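Database export, one record per block. Field names are fixed; values are copied verbatim from the stored entry.
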Amino acid sequence: MNHPKPSGEIKAVAVATADDLRETIRRKSKLKGRQADDVSLAEVRQLIGAAPHRRDLLIENLHKLNDEYRALHDRHLVALAKEMNLPMAEVYEVATFYHHFEVVRGNDPVADITVRVCDGIACELAGAQNLLAKLPAILGNPNVKVVAAPCVGRCEQAPVAVVHQYPVLFATTDKVSAAVKNNLTTQPMAKDSANFDPAALAEKGVSPQGENQALSPDYVGYESYRAQGGYALAKEIFEGKKDGESIVKIMESSGLRGLGGAGFPAGRKWRIVRDQVAPKLMAVNIDEGEPGTFKDRTYLERDPHRFLEGLLIAASVVGIDACYIYLRDEYHGCRELLEVELAKLKANPPFKLPLIELRRGAGAYICGEESAMIESIEGKRGEPRMRPPYIAQVGLFGRPTLEHNFETLYWVRDIVQRGPEWFSSFGRHDRKGLRSYSVSGRVKNPGVKLAPAGITIQELIDEYCGGMQDGHKFYGYLPGGASGGILPATMNDIPLDFDTLQPYGCFIGSAAVMVFGDKDKARDMALNVMHFFEHESCGQCTPCRVGTSKAAKLMQSKSWDQDTLEDLATVMVDASICGLGQAAPNPIRCIAKYFPEEVA
């Protein structure tokens, strides 16, 4: 093969002029995508302050914008991304993950007021669907939006509507209309002049009765709590006058288990995290999103410092450097109360405090799962993490983390001061301890009942709830909220406690007990909670995301396709990442097993 000979001279060919190169550099120097305008930047800076901004405060900053403008305008999201030095895609995906954020584009209209009507089981039994059907026409204002909302944690006051951030208890169309007309959009601040001793309420009802309940009940403020001996125990432990090991042993002996639903022994959890390498953190779960649950709100809005003292005792014993309190967004009154009382505590501390930060949820049930809550505290989408590692080893910000439910910490002071035997001395049917049962539905006296662990549903109804409502005969109950399964009234002698309900395909969880009568259908209860799971699935794993949606559609049929539903249930239980997808089939299987005549 003949090849051409190399030329003795190579001629230069110009591919671009100097002006062309300058223009190319100018174009590349401009940022791609939508740019923040000066007005939006100024509005964002006015709300969140000057840079630099912590990445984990993204959700807090989104709340500031959402509160101010009643929505998240896309121009503000662009400006927020620039201010926080975050990709716009990351800000957008977080903003669109949470139900309480509404992203609007351009000049799209924003409602002046959003009225959320709870459609949880207790509220639905009390007439929520009637409110949802009638309110839009009665309000007659295009700037007022009426939407259905998942359980807002006020089941003993059903039905409940929330006008922006103002709860309307025992709601009627007239009450809601009056609230909108009078521009009642924020919950009034409570007075800090109450006396409240939870131990004195053992084996009694905690919640007030009747429709004239205070929206913001009086509570025990900081000065009053200190005057009654509050924080004295925490100070002794902090100063080393009481040995940390002895406190851990008291917690272990008491038998106190996590009261958020999982039931892990509290003392054992303290010991595990205590042995980890510092720095260690604490994450407190007051998301309380399990439908039917309202015990944490009931105690928090009456006695916040008993909880805070329990938090500080745990922090001293375990060696915690920083505490993050995650409070559900629906509890607006509790948030203001906690902000005020935390400020008082920090201004006049009984001893040197760890860092304590209050974080605000944004309407996502999945954030009740501990690792999803940690993701949310870090300012991310609340998606559960794969385990291991467990958060006791690698948790919040990558550090060993002690995670607790509000009520678990609430009882720490009383257990240590009164002795572990005080707590464990309560109980029925070979069970030990006290449980705060959130009881709602067709009972005469709903509310939080501080009853012996192991009490049966029949004993709870008869002794604590005044029996069934007039005209209703006991037909069935949900022993542990939406995910705890459904049982018939014939199974009324099962002790309601950890580990006693699993043989029947149920569990106690957060002890949210919902009772329904013979004029109701168990299948309707199951469909209600499946719609809830469909709405609240984070979407991370296909079995849960698709399975809950498919199940909800199949469950609307008069006769259920039992084989297909069981196939869905098996896949959800076996392949879902977290407890939401794993527990979602419980209502399906309970209806098929205990109420087969309703779906045959």
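Remark 1: The chain has 25 helices and 16 strands.
Remark 2: The chain has a mean pLDDT of 95.
End of record.
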